[in-house]
Amino acid sequence: MNVLLIGSGGREHALAWKLAASPLLTKLYAAPGNPGIAQETECVSLAVDDHAAVVAFAKEKNIDLVVVGPEAPLVAGLADELEAAGIRVFGPSKAAAQLEGSKGFTKDLCARYGIPTAAYGRFNNAPKAKAYARQVGAPIVIKADGLAAGKGVTVAMTLDEALDAIDACFEGAFGAAGAEVVVEEFLEGEEASFFCICDGTTALPFGSAQDHKRVGEGDTGPNTGGMGAYSPAPVITAELEARVMREIIEPTMRGMAEMGAPFRGMLFAGLMITEEGPKLIEYNTRFGDPECQVLMTRLKDDLLTLVNAAVDGQLSHMSVRWRDEAALTVVFAAEGYPASPKKGTVISGIESAEDENVQVFHAGTARDSEDRLVANGGRVLNVTAKGANVTEAAARAYAALDKISWEGGFCRRDIGWRAIEREKAAG
Ligand code: AMP
Ligand code: GLY
Fold first, then answer.
1. Between β-strands 27-32 and 2-7, what pairing exists: parallel, antiparallel or unpaired?
2. Which residue owns the Cα nearest ligand 1 atom 3?
3. Continuous segment of H or E residues that includes residue 254
4. Going residue by residue through the chain (427 aa), what tens digit of pLDDT does each one get?
């Protein structure tokens, strides 16, 4: 099979690494890719938001399957345009990608199908949103409805903070994404990410993970895209997984199908495990970044076989097998991230960091005019290791990271702390 992978981050490097190992693969292209992906396969400089160009390339190269990494092209309808041209694609239609593209859409679906989630209101003007926030009181959560690159959510501990966040949304802080606002109840508990591969009808559990969103150790400081992750999430027991499937995922699949927008692709549920049980915080309609890096490290089965089955509506015949080991990834970020990451600093020594248990995925890297590897984004490298448990995976990942020479980088030294404490307590 000829496959085209869309995207350029650490998530896509992990997908390229796993796809490149598939016995079903003839040729893999990545657009636009990055220097790490270029070590696995051929990168092509396609403008991914030019859907017509993506369709033309796929036709020219006899692409049998397009795998879409990031959310923006899905929400913009790339999957629909590929399908209209007769090209198979792993990733939801524009209508189904509303699960990520509109928080209000997802909340209404939850309300209609009795899916446990925080109580909420949807508003298109500040006075009504503020009245609702006053009525509920702090702590309370304010969300821009649309895609805001992970920045549209304010967990307000005081009412003043909530009112300011409402003003910021309607004053355009998130552009069109903030034209509508969801105000919702604050949930308490432990967060976990839960994944399902979906074929429109069947959803198969596809692993769990926990990430660290805050930039600073001890989960402090500003939010980021994620500073590290590990899998599996110890809080997602087999019993809890069955409950999440029954109460959250299956009614979602049913609801989307009834609406004429069956969900095909990777469904990523952000969950809060509360005292009353699991509740949905949000959906993403693609793999997580950096969660994908730990899932691909643990996946025993061939990814391309599973993705094909999803596209062809054949998942009910499939199962997914995982290694017994845990995996953990540490994000090596550029100084100044998340506010203003410094670009252009030189990185070396990645080869000496890798072995049979360690893989370094590239996220924001580039080659400079002298062909040196340099930082070219906020999250730059994902140093990923497997181990008998999270404690061992973390020790291997940090030992590997310390072999990489990069003056301009920093990382959190406590990725996995929750799981490591649990493992210590369990002896
Ligand atoms: P999101 O971008 O929707 O994933 O939200 C970012 C983060 O905000 C989540 O990972 C949670 O930590 C937090 N968050 C979102 N909604 C709630 C809520 N209703 N209660 C508590 N925390 C929340
Ligand atoms: N790491 C969170 C996300 O990919 O949305």
1. parallel
2. 282
3. helix 250-258
4. 999 999 999 999 999 999 999 999 999 999 999 999 999 999 999 999 999 999 999 999 999 999 999 999 999 999 999 999 999 999 999 999 999 999 999 999 999 999 999 999 999 999 999 999 999 999 999 999 989 877 788 899 999 999 999 999 898 888 888 888 999 999 999 999 999 999 999 999 999 999 999 999 999 998 898 999 999 999 999 999 999 999 999 999 999 999 999 999 999 999 999 999 999 999 999 999 999 999 999 999 999 999 999 999 999 999 999 999 999 999 999 999 999 999 999 999 999 999 999 999 999 999 999 999 999 999 999 999 999 999 999 999 999 999 999 999 999 999 999 999 999 999 8
Alpha-carbon dihedral sign for residues 213, 217, 222, 224: negative
| Mutation probe of ligand 1 site: the residue of 71, 143, 155 with most atoms within 8 A of C-beta | 155
| Residue nearest ligand 1's atom 7 by CA | 153
Q: Which of 273, 90, 110, 118 has its CA nearest to residue 197? A: 90
CB of 270 closer than 6 angstroms to any ligand 1 atom? yes
